Amino acid sequence: MTSRVAKIVELALMQRKTDSGIIDYQKESSTSTSEVILSTESINVSRLQSELPSTSGTAKMFSGASNNDSESERDPFESSSESYVPSDSELSLDEDQIMEEPLEQHREELAQQNNKTKKRKQGNKFLWKRSIVKRNRLSGKKYINRSGKTVEEKKPLPVNCTKCRYKCEKNITEELRIIICREYWEMGDYDKQKLHLSSLVTDVPIKRRKQQVEQSRRKTSRIFYLKNFEGLRIRVCLNFFCKTFNISHRVIETCMKNVGNTHTYTGFDKRKGKRPHNVTKEQDVLLVKEHIDSFPRVESHYCRRDSTKQYLSSDLNLSQMYRLYIGFCENRNVTKVSKFVYQKIFHKYDPALDFFIPKKDQCFKCNAYNTAKDKEPLKEEFDSHKKREKDAMRMKSEDKERAAREKGQTFRAATFDLQAILSVPFAGDNQIFYKLKLNVYNFTIFDASDATEASEIVAQKVEDIWKSASIPIVSHQRIVALTKEYQKKRKDLLKPYLKRKDAVSYKSKLDVFKKDSLRLFDIAACKCDNFNSCLCLKQNKVPIKERPFLQDQRSCRQMIIGSVDFEAVRQQQKREMRSKCDKENNIIDDAKASTSSYNRQVDGLEVEIEPGFNNIDGNEVTQHEKKKEQSAVISDEQTILQPTKRNTRNLSELAKTLDRYAVSDRAGAAIASAVLQDYGIVNNEDTQNIIDRHKVRRARQKNRTDLQRFSKSIVLLGLYFDGRKDKTLTFDDNRKRTIVEEHISLIQEPDSKYLGHVSPISGTAANILDAFNIFFQISSISLDSLEVIGCDGTNTNVGSKGGIISLLEKTIGRPLQWFICQLHANELPLRHLLQHLDGETTGPRAFRGHIGTLLHNCEKLPIVEFSRIESELPDITSDFKLSTDQNYLHQICSSIINGSCSEALSKRDPGKLVHSRWLTTANRILRLYVSTENPTQNLVSLATFIIKVYAPMWFLIKTKSSCIYGAQHIFKYIELCHYLPEDLKNVVFKVINRNGFFGHPENILLSMLWDERKHIRHLAYCRILKYRTVSDGKLNIRSFAVPDFNFKAKNYYELVDCQTILWTEPPITARLTDAQLKEIVEDPEKSEISYIKKYPCHTQAVERAVKMVTEASVTVCGYERRDGLIRNQLASRSIMPSFESKKYFISNL
Description:
Elements: H1 2-14, E1 36-37, H2 45-51, H3 56-62, H4 103-114, H5 129-138, E2 143-144, E3 150-151, H6 168-171, H7 174-186, H8 190-200, E4 201-205, E5 220-227, E6 233-236, H9 238-245, H10 249-257, H11 282-293, E7 310-312, H12 318-332, H13 339-347, E8 353-355, H14 364-371, H15 376-405, E9 418-422, H16 430-433, E10 438-441, E11 445-446, H17 451-468, H18 476-494, H19 497-500, H20 504-517, H21 547-553, H22 566-587, E12 601-602, E13 605-615, H23 623-630, E14 639-647, H24 652-660, H25 665-678, H26 693-710, E15 718-732, E16 735-749, E17 753-758, H27 765-778, E18 788-791, H28 795-798, H29 804-812, E19 817-820, H30 822-838, H31 850-854, H32 884-898, H33 903-906, H34 918-929, H35 937-959, H36 966-976, H37 982-995, H38 1001-1009, H39 1014-1030, H40 1074-1082, H41 1100-1113, H42 1119-1135, H43 1142-1146
Parallel strand pairs: 1-11, 7-8, 15-18, 18-19
Antiparallel strand pairs: 2-3, 4-5, 5-6, 9-10, 12-13, 13-14, 15-16, 16-17
Helix pairs in contact: 17-18, 18-20, 24-26, 24-42, 25-26, 26-42, 30-35, 30-37, 32-34, 32-35, 34-35, 35-36, 38-39, 39-40, 41-42
């Protein structure tokens, strides 16, 4: 049988007519491998049948159109007239005799065994269409209701209250109405909204009644309020109230019906938290588990080594178990559960259960040797058998590597083995095993090279055909993507074929797939059906002469591509030549009297001359004379040369400056030309130096491309990243659009050099890491030297299992040094303290509490006498640059410490109130403090925390920004917080411990190695040596988690107890020898890793890159232009950071 299969493989490969090398492994092995490494091209089975020996087994194996075969088992994408390749399940071979039973019956049994029931996909209610519509409705966003009508976004409705006695429009501005309406709908929760409305509506008893014919039964009057910016309640009318919230009167009536005696809303959903009435009782669940436990477990020899899964006998199934369970319940006289519940408990059983199905045989020689009592007579033969097995596996691995290395062009390898498919009575010994099973050859055919290569080959061939038809086509990458997508869809549809072949929905999917496959290679750039109304770009339009051919190919396909039309080619060449000559003639100006300007240089500006010819009288010369004169020296006195001048001056500096200050091409060209005119370089007689917008655009593009090219192939030691969602300009359907896109900015540390930015599919860690890998691959940036990673402390970045850094460490196979931004960590305690004292936030710029409400307009309040708060700020030198918001924080902190605030400072803007910038929130809290005569205790606590802790730590991190001070900053923060009372201290310390990444032992050891005290450096040296001894010098990937801090520590190296927690070595020192570490102890400044001090402990450099990416996203379209614009701006700033006077410019010449 082995020889027959080898013959089959040989004939199959001969059909390809290639010089491929075929290796037939006839090995003796204790393992069964089913693997064939061949080409992805189809094998013509009908041709093979005629060349194979007429044996019953072989005929059975390849009888694709046998009488016993069902045509429904064929590949649904192949027609009956074409060559057919049987699938794995269709290839069957009986070693002894042809099975007399119908083949269809065997196939059904095979399908039942092989097609295991997949795990049911868990539904995600959050992504249901109904849930999305409900969220949009509760949030006031635009949505489509069940009737198919579009409900617009909720905004305040226009209202006329000029005659209203409450003067609603005067008291409540339109801007405040928008804010009130947005905050109400952004709650997104029915109960919260009703609770909010009930707090603004009050029912009071009627004070007087007017005399009426019919006595009214109404006993109360309803009063409506809205809150202004100061949080004060302003009475308004019902109409104004409803139109401000964009709600109907009925909403208020429903809400007030559920307002109790406490004047608060009580109509909450009573069903939440209740136990379902039809839940399965606990005793019934235990009884089912007891019944499942009564079945013995069967050992499996081919599951994973560390698997906890258990197996039941192969003659059992769930239906049989449930029937036995019914008798089990009847004997005990208890109520049984349904079959669905029984199955559900079975699938959730711990440990997991499954039914044992034998899938492979065991070696006869190995079994004979292992079970023999006297093994000496068999020892020699067994050793020889094992040696042949190892040799066969080694040869197989070598040939696989060779086939993959040569990409299947000159060498291919084929391996095969007999695999059991149909489960019948089982015996482990293979001599009995194959007698009791239906045996088939299961060939797996694939190309040893990458699957992309096959798509590349197909795409190239299809492109060549279309190019010969002179029809514009889509890009090569798009064709490859279409081919891959077709292959993926085909595989997905084939998987459930045996199960769902008769289903109507499945058949419709097959029909759609077949129909789409007919258009797979329609790669014309123009997809228009009516070419007369085609709106495609000019370069994508189909030539008029080729349109009938394209229409024919999209319909009946009767036309074919013939030989080259030499006449059409000649006419096309003539048209191109004529167009070129017309352009040259249009450039030529009126003839001048002399040719002195033929080769000249104006103020160092080189000029290229392209001669053109005109008769002195202005008459055009003939084409023949023109060609003759262009190739000879002009000697005719009647002919005067008028040169065509081209300005080749490099405008790289102009391009950088225009990109830096966001000046358009047209405006930049006008400004530059005007300057040349003022300096006399451009005038009426000499216009060759004029700069037009096209030259500016070319200079910009050239500069951007050069900078992008120089940025590749760098050695990356440290990678810092951060990102945000930006409004991004795109060009789609011949018009510009603005979308929201995630952008992650990357910079190189040390020296904070911009690397680039990526746009992941989504904000998940896996998608962001995929975007990183693609970027590094395209930019030719190797991660072999990467040792440091930096970012902020969001869970997406720093998750111990699924964070970006953890996944990156697993990708490169080694740990990295984590430098998590301390400025972000410095803001978190203030944020949690404010929420603890004043309540949660209610939006991106709003607070719920009294203090947060007053922060919006605090800069308009006058300065009053306030109590000074004692504290000390780090010294800020004059050459240390602070941003506007940071400078304001330093000045107002100094004013509160001194007890007086200047008038100039009171008129300055403390910054926008945004939850993503807590520095400005701190500024506004201090501004509110100096404007409040009798501040509340909560306001005093917040202001004191900012003066004593937040601001000193901010400026300390800014002045000592090196990573070697990170652990010391953590200890300093804890030390400054000891003044707090216990309740506030618990709030702050919990946040510090959760975000104190520089308190990890690796970063503590790094700080100790650079400590000013030598004995501390020696202590760090000893701890690193201890870890190297324990770990045998191996640096394994660890789960990076911040340990619990000792908040009573007296020094930073005592924050973590080294006796209870294993201190791991900093990854940045792992490549150093013990002797090199000893040199650091002696003098860290002269060591090999002295550059470590340049790594910052914060990510403000990344935030600057994020800001530039945000600005570029709304300026230009596309990644390449966006990235080039950023690099141009950075190049200009690196040459001249500022331009305040001439000296700034001269110093950079």
